[in-house]
Amino acid sequence: MKSVIVGTAGHIDHGKTALVRALTGIDADRLEEEKRRGITIDIGFAHLELPGPCGERLRLGFVDVPGHERFVRNMLAGIGGIDLVLLVISAEEGVKPQTVEHFDICRLLSIPRGLTVLTKSDLVDPDTLSVVRMEVEDFLRGSFLDPSRAPIVPVSAKTGAGLDALKRELARIAAEASAKDAGAAFRLPIDRVFTMKGFGTVVTGTLVSGTVHKEEELELLPSGRRVRVRGVQVHGAAAERAIAGERTALNLAGVPTEELARGMTLLRPDSFHTSRRADVSLALLPSAKPLKDRARVHLHAFTSETIAEVVLLDRKKLDPGQTAFAQLRLTEPLLLLPGDRFILRQFSPVITIGGGMIVDAAPLAPSRRTRLPLDERLRGLATLQSGTHEDMLLARVARTGNSGLAISAAVAETGWTPVVLEQAAEALARSGKLTRLGELLISTSVLQQLKARTLAAVADLHDRNPLVAGIGKEELRTRLELVPEVFAAVLDSLAKTGKLELAAEQVRAAGRGVVMKDEEAESKRIIEQAFASAGLKVPSLKDVLAGLKVDRTRAQKIVTLLLRDKLLVKVSEELVFHRDALDDLRRRVLALKPKTPKIDVAIFKEMTGVTRKYAIPLLEYLDRERVTRRVGDERLIL
User: Fold this and answer.
1) Do the domains spanning 2-176 and 518-637 agree at the CATH topology level?
2) Where does the pLDDT of residue 37 fall: very low under 50, low under 70, confident under 90, or very high at 90 and above?
3) pLDDT tens across 170-209, in order?
4) DSSP-derived pairing of the beta strands 237-239 and 275-284
5) What CATH class does 518-637 carry?
6) CA dihedral of 133, 135, 137, 143, whole degrees rounded to 10
C-alpha cells in the first residue's frame, strides 16, 4: 500500500482541523487547551485509506498544523516531511496573513503538489464564493498550486458538501506523488515524545527515508545515545516495520522521555553526523527586507530549529527575491544532509523571510577554505547543488586534496547509500578520474602530482647530500605532508615502475646511491679503521675527525652514513663504537651467565679492561639491548 503524507496549511480558524476530522473521522486536536480554546496549538495527526484511480490502495497520513501566527514554529515542525499540501482558505474570509506565510513556506520547502480547499462554503452565497475563488486564483497563479493544474475544491466540513470530490482529487494527486525511498538511509525526525502506560517511551515522526524494524538498534542525534526499538506502529496500528512515507511511532528502550525532544533525529548508528555549519542555496522572499551579511535568523529544518548566522559568500546584502549561496553557522548542532530543505525566519520580529536547500553539510574547515578563490568555491557549490552523482563525488574527493576521502566519510557527507556511492566511485575509476586506495578515494590527477613531488623531493635530497644513501620513509612522508595510505600508495607505484628503490625504512631514487670523491672514500676508511682497531677503548670522535683531509661538514655526513649502515653505533652522546666490538662484548657477557648470572661495574671493568668512563655507558647500552637488566647496583644477565 502506497503511503503519502498530506499536510494542511492556512490561516487560523479557516477550518483545517474540522476538514481533517470530516475526511478521516479523527480529531487531530489532542491537547486539552486546544479543545478548550477551539484552536490548534500543536501539530496533530490523522489517517485515511482511499482507493486510487487504478484500483490501488492509498494510505494518507494527515499532519494538521496550527494556523495562528504565534504557532508557526509548531507548523514548521510538522510540514517538513509532507508529500502534498492542502492549502485551506475560508470562503468567508479569503486570503489572510497566515495564508500567505504558510503558502510561502510550502513554496520554499519545494512541496511539489497539492490542492486548494475553500472551506465553510455553506456559510456564503454563490456570488461570494465565486468572488473568493477568483481572489484565490489570482493569488495562486504561476505557483505549484496554479488553478490550471491544481483544482480549487469548495467544501463544507459541517454538511459534507464537496468532501467526495475532495477525496477523488486527493486520490488522484496522491497516486501521482513520488514514493519516498525506502531503500535509502533510515532517518526519522522526531516531532512528538510521550510516555504510554504499559509501554514506556514513545516517539513519533514522519519517516522521511529508509526502513525501521522491531528490535533494531538506533542512534539518537545530536546526543549520540543508542536506543532499541521495542515496538513499531504505523498510523496507529502495530507493525513489524515502518517504511519511508509513513507516519511512524516507535516504542524505545534505553532512554527516558526526559532525554528526548522534538527536533532530535533517529538513525542507524554511525551513519551520519551533526554539523554546526552548512553551505546552502538561499532564496529570500520578495516580501522580505534585504538580508545583511552576518545577520542572525531562526533556522527550521524538518522538526528541528536553532539560531543561525547567515554568511553571504559573494555579497554584503541579499535583496528581496534574490537567490545566493551562503553558509549557515548554527548555535546548536543539527543533522542536515544535502538536498534537505529549510526555512529562515527573521530574528525579530519573527516572520518567515526565506529558505532554500542544503548543498553541503560538511563544508571545508576555514583554514582550508580560505585557500580557495571565491569563484572556484562557488563553482564547487554549483556542482554539489545540481551535478550528477559522479560530478558531486569527484568534487568532494578533489577538494580533500592530498588526504583523499574515505568511503564512510563520503556516505556521511552525501547521505547516499553505500551502493549508490560505490557505483559513482566505480564509474569515476573506470574513466580514470578517481583512484581507489582500499577504502580511500583520491583524485587521480592529485595522485600523479604527488608522485612527481615525491620524485622531486628524493632527487633534491640526493643532489644536496651526495653522501646520504637515501631518506627515511617517515621523514619523507612528514616532509610531503601525506596520510599513511596515500604515501604508501605513492611509494608502491613509484617502486613498481622502477623510479624509486625501497630498502628497509629508506627511500632512494633508482640508481642513486652514495657518491664519494677519493678523499671522502679515504676518510670513510680511516674513520672505520680507527674504531675497529680500538676495540672498547675507543678514541674521541672529535679527535678522529680532526685528522681527516675533508672539511667538518663532509666528515659529519660520512659518520652519519656509517651510523645508518650500522657499522658504527652511538652508545652515548660522546662515545661511538664499532659494530664488531659491541657484538664481541655481547658474546662475552652472555658467556658469563652459566658461571655468574649477575655482574656489577667492578666485574665488568675487570672483564673488559675499560675505565668507569666507558663501563657505565656500555652497561646502559646492554640494558637497552636487553642483554642485561639492572637490579639495584647489579645487572642480571638475560
Assistant:
1) no
2) low
3) 999 999 988 888 889 999 999 989 888 878 899 999 999 9
4) unpaired
5) mainly alpha
6) -140
Question: Which residues, in sequence order, are CB contacts of 446 under 8 Å at separation 6+?
Answer: 398, 401, 402
Neighbouring-strand partners of residue 153: 117
Rg of the chain in Å (alpha carbons): 37
pLDDT value at 495 more than 70: yes
Structurally, at CATH architecture level, domain 275-367 sits in Beta Barrel (2.40)
Pairing relationship of beta strands 2-10 and 57-64 according to DSSP bridges: parallel
- The ranges assigned to domains in the chain are 2-176, 187-267, 275-367, 518-637
Average pLDDT of every residue of the chain? 88
Q: Does domain 2-176 have CATH number 3.40.50.300?
A: yes
398-500-448 Cα angle (round to 5): 20
> For the residues of 180-211, what is the DSSP string, one character each?
P-TTS--EEE--EEEEETTTEEEEEEE--BSE
DSSP E strand boundaries for 32-99:
44-51, 57-64, 84-90
pLDDT band at 364 (very low <50, low <70, confident <90, very high): confident
The distance of Cα 330 from the centroid of its chain, to the nearest Å, equals: 15
187-267: which CATH architecture? Beta Barrel (2.40)
pLDDT tens for each residue of 94-107: 999 999 999 999 99
